[in-house]
Specification:
Number of helices: 4
Shape: elongated
Number of strands: 0
Radius of gyration: 19 Å
Length: 70
């Protein structure tokens, strides 16, 4: 999750730096609309949490002794 948070922070910083370039391509929303930025960030974090939860649950079900023997 730290990698996802770091990537999200870098993406937001890059987005804000490029907002003037993107302003010409957006219709119906400003280039720095906080609600849109928050919704997109929340969606990406939700997907990354789901993607990291499934392998964590699988790893938690394995007996540690069996995993160390292999």
């Amino acid at each position: 999750m730290r990698a996802a948070a770091a990537g999200l922070a870098a993406g937001i910083a890059g987005y804000l730096a490029m907002s003037r370039v993107l302003a010409g391509q957006l219709f119906g929303v400003s280039a720095t609309d906080p609600l849109t930025l928050l919704a997109a960030s929340f969606g990406l974090m939700l997907v990354s949490m789901a993607a990291s939860t499934v392998p964590a649950f699988r790893a938690a079900r394995i007996d540690p002794l069996l995993a160390l023997r292999r």
